Amino acid sequence: MAFSARVGARVKRKEDPRLITGAGQYTGNLSLPGMAYVAFVRSPYAHANINSVDVSAARARAGVIAVITGAELTTAYTPMPMEDAGKDGAHTHYAISIERVRYAGEIVAVVIADSAAVAADAVNDVVVEWEPLTPVVEMRAALDSNSPRVFPDMENNIGHTWTRKRGEVDEAFASAARVVSLSLNSQRLAGVAMETRAVLAAPDPFTNGLTVWTSTQAAHGVRTELAKLLKLPENSVRVIAPDVGGGFGVKIGLYAEDAAVAALALRLKRPLRWVESRTESMLATTHGRGQLAEISAAVQADGKVTGLRLRVLGDLGAYPRTTSIIDLTGLMSVGVYNIPAVDIDIKGVFTNTTPVAAYRGAGRPEAAYYIERLMDAIAAELQIDPVEVRRRNFIPPDAFPLKTASGFKYDSGEYEKALDKALHISAYPALREEQQKRLKENSNWLLGIGLATYVEMCAFGYDSAIVRAEPSGTVTVLTGISPHGQGQHTTFAQMVAEQLGVDFDKVIVKHGDTALTPMGQGTMGSRGLVVGGSALVRATDKVKAKAIQIAAHILEAAAEDIELKDALYQVKGAPSKGVTFAQIAERAYGDDLPAELDTGLEATDFFRLPDSTCPFGAHVAVVEVERETGEVRLLNYFAVDDCGPRFSPVLVDGQVHGGLAQGIGQALLEEMAYDAGGQALSGSLIEYAVPRASTFSHFTTAETVTPSPTNPLGAKGIGEAATIGSTPAIVNAVVDALRPFGVTNIDMPLKPERVWRALNQK
Length: 762
Hints:
Elements: H1 16-20, E1 36-42, E2 48-54, H2 56-60, E3 64-69, E4 100-101, E5 107-113, H3 116-123, E6 127-132, H4 139-143, E7 158-166, H5 169-174, E8 178-186, E9 189-190, E10 198-204, E11 209-214, H6 219-230, E12 237-240, H7 256-268, E13 272-275, H8 278-284, E14 287-288, E15 291-299, E16 305-317, H9 325-331, E17 342-350, H10 364-382, H11 386-393, E18 402-403, E19 409-410, H12 415-426, H13 428-440, E20 445-455, E21 462-469, E22 475-479, H14 488-500, E23 507-510, H15 528-555, E24 562-565, E25 568-571, E26 574-579, H16 581-588, E27 602-608, E28 616-626, E29 632-642, H17 649-668, E30 699-703, H18 721-738, H19 752-761
Parallel strand pairs: 1-13, 11-12, 16-17, 22-23, 29-30
Antiparallel strand pairs: 1-5, 2-4, 2-6, 3-5, 7-17, 8-15, 9-14, 10-11, 10-13, 15-16, 18-19, 20-28, 21-22, 21-27, 24-25, 25-26, 28-29
Helix pairs in contact: 9-10, 10-11, 10-18, 14-15, 15-16, 17-18
């Protein structure tokens, strides 16, 4: 598929004027006649039996419409969906839990009132008689045979295992010149989307079902799960995702609050709305990461890695929707390196904490962190430059497509090319000279340079598009993906405008409404352009093909003699004979058409990706560390990312900048911590540190372009790439600054006290 003009141009986002002038429409802003407000009673305990729930005082409060316990609602729905719910659903729960809770923040009752304030106050009137149980919170403790069981029917707390042993790994370690090992953590994180979750459900008298507005990344997925849970026909449930203020993976799938509000709206026969507080968001919205790893490399004298061993312990929390995200860490464990033998063992453990699910990158940032930290450790062990270790181990460009020893198929890549560009734009040799100069001068500010060369898996499954030309020549795109900041209103309009010869401003993109848009899998995993865009170009091609036939009829020419040039469908070699798309569209809905053509000008198409795509890149982070305090300052950051062709460079830059902020935030600041009793120690934005603008330096971004053979656009995806590359680059930079003083590793987040202690203990 060849594009020019609009595609690849730096155009302003179509979405922005509406959003920055306050005309956005979010679930929490919506109001319907007769609407009531929902608040949830949540468990203060991480593990406890529910002996009784007394709602009498809450029901007596003025303005309270109803107070519902879990036991009163069990016939209204089935338990929450879960990938492996165990025998008879023993490892899942009802939306409003009964009998037992397994993490602090779990719902045990619901208050419905005529105002949000009354509902919140009435929550405090509900009296629950608890029988506290001993929780298991720490992952290693969960492995202990004597630890409390999150689910009593299990012999232990291991909820998932994944192993892979390929190649002569034992021989590689036995014959290695060096074995280099690290113990690493990828700490638990909160998503902290700007908009918290929200849901508004209203009975639909026309279908005897529901219309649900919700802040989600996947409207069709929520509809499917909600219909099953409520035992309703799928076509009687309409789910609408209006503007969504950030998702990052934590807004995928159905939550307990969605199910409870929907079931209660049907029961009370009136619209109900719930908007999550920030504290609720920290406690009840799924978390990400949460892994401990032991990684070892069998290394030859020249730095070539011949074998890899990886042991990962992943925190599942209490009720994970899926237990297999940690498998992605294993699949991507070799990174960009040609490692012929692996021995990988991954275990996921249940704990009495908030469930862990997808968060920007979902398993791949962890893998990149482990292998990139290991590469720096190998360089230090052999006393060679980290650049050289990477060069000696890269998968060569002519090896693709390649199935790695860890079991994943890479589509294409030129890893050394990206690294060379990153070294060039960062002036890497000069940075090393400055580093040595500071050491000789005994400077209080140590300079550190960190590298990361990463690859990830992106995109999956199918998606859809409808391209509809109106009689006036305007075009409406209906897409199955569900953008929430990614900018597909802009990108898709660029693509359609270019393919059809339509004015960019006359293309409107609609999404996130299951009653309007074709079935799709939503926006996650950097799949919007790769999968949704591929469906779009296929549908647009069909519209263009018909437009050419209509143009040929109007111009009294053969269809094969019609070309689109300068927004005119014209006879080749006769530019004076041409028609616009608007003229073609008007004719498409009239009577003067060839007999072989049906009326109308629209098309629907689906695209299924045969294999995931593999974006990659090379990052260089430059930091300085103050000896006296351990403070880390980011001086500069250079990111070279290869996502295939860049259809909207402005949007790519935005995704890279946002991804860098989240990856750097993990490296330096963020951590969702619990005490031994399962209480969140960082359960609000007072304790949970998120980066500010002052945290960051200037970002210098650049690109290489290696198309993917898996889709007609050659696109690879960019939404998660910078997050994956930035975390190891920052930690490598800090350790690089401290290495002359004997520091070889520091656990994230690299807060000043932790860095200071590491420096002074050595």
